[in-house]
Amino acid sequence: MRYSKFIGRSLREVPKEAEALSHRLLLKAGYIDPLMAGVYTFLPLGWRVMRKIEEVIREEMEGIGGQEILMPTLQKKEQWLESGRWDGPGEIDPPLFKFKDRRDRELALGPTHEEIVTDLARRFISSYKDLPLAVFQIQNKFRNEMRPTGGVLRTREFLMKDLYSFHANEEDIDRYYREVIKAYERIFSRCGLKVLVVSAHSGTIGGSESHEFMLPATAGEDRAVYCEHCDFASNLQKSGELKNCPNCGQTIFTTAAIEMAHIFKLGTTYSEKMQAYFVGPDGSRHPLVMGCYGIGLARIMAAAIESKAGHDERGIIWPKELTPFDVHLVSLAGGEDVAETLYGAMEKSGLETLYDDRDEPAGVKLTDADLIGIPVRVLVSKKSLEAGGVEVSSRS
RNA sequence: CGGGGAUUAGCGCAGUGGUAGCGCGCUCGCUUUGGGAGCGAGAGGUCGGCAGUUCGACUCUGCCAUCCCCGACCA
Q1: Which positions of strand B lie within 7 Å of protein CB atoms?
Q2: What is the DSSP letter of A11?
Q3: SS3 state at A385
Q4: Rounded-to-integer distance, Cα A337 and Cα A340, Å
Q5: How far is it, in rounded angstroms, from Cα A115 to Cα A89?
Q6: Would the pLDDT of A106 be above 90?
Q7: Fewest C-beta atoms under 10 Å: which of A45, A113, A115, A337?
């Protein structure tokens, strides 16, 4: 794509509201644009990164047998009354965005899909022979947060991958839960993120056991404790302050962290409330054993930048899997014609190319290239041509 | 929801009780071109909203809205 035609080119000055590093860089480089508190447009660069993240997640979810579906954003009150999360003591937190349609019927925007998916399950799953079953979607969620923070780190509308699994018994969900953890570890490692898997509270989602995937980062709102000698790690909220590892007695470390993902063993909480049963080999009815597993896509985008390898003083440095384009082609004075030809050839060969064809001084184009953070740069100029060709360099 | 800060051109900011300016960006022309270029000429504003005080309000007062930061919650 030609940078001269982009909607959302880089900014000389960053809006002062941005404090978090990833927020500043995403705004300055033209990846996102704010609409209101906690609501953003993803501009071409930002959306391409989101699609890359989506692809990594999709591959890994399909790799563990997840079937992709798309459930509605508009949800009806009745199902939320069934689960007890519409209002009252069991009300979901943050609360639902609720409103009425033209017939005065109460609706909500979905913040998560346990109700919808459990309803699907009770109608489509009837026998133990149908189990296990896992479905996932990548869909916009709406949460009426008290306070959105850190740009795209915590928003009121956000793209989330949510996976739901259904099992005949505890042993089977234990097995699948471990598979999901491995798939998540692959997702984060492919996105260049070194995360801690910590045990956590399950909040208003409910269930018996839950884990969070935390990225140590100063912008994080959470705190995690972990042991460097064994695999003990926990959300500080759950473990409380610790000096020594409860497993091996070694010193415990504490770090600020971004919650990247959260997974839950829901057990039969929802299936019992919503009467989602299956018939076992013995011919009697049992409630489905459920798990749910969520990842915030924009958080991965922001976290990749917040991580140590994701930026330097000049701008963003994308990992290969997330970069919005494979190559950043930059023409400088005297290199325009060759750059045009090269651009055509690169596009034709299937290389995703961002072509900075603007008539701008070298300083502007090079500074923007550093800011945008595409890992490979190809420079064509009079100087490079005199030296026999083009310059290829790596952002890191 | 509690506390703090803010709202003037696309972005960053000045400013005064007498009807608004700077830098960047944008448009046109010329010059320039290896690290955010130069000169010249332009376009762009109901000064967040509603009341009030006043001969006169962007400026003073009140209410409201919106945004940011800190706290409790989340992917």
Answers
A1: 1-2, 10-13, 23-25, 32-37, 66-75
A2: P
A3: helix
A4: 5
A5: 17
A6: yes
A7: A337
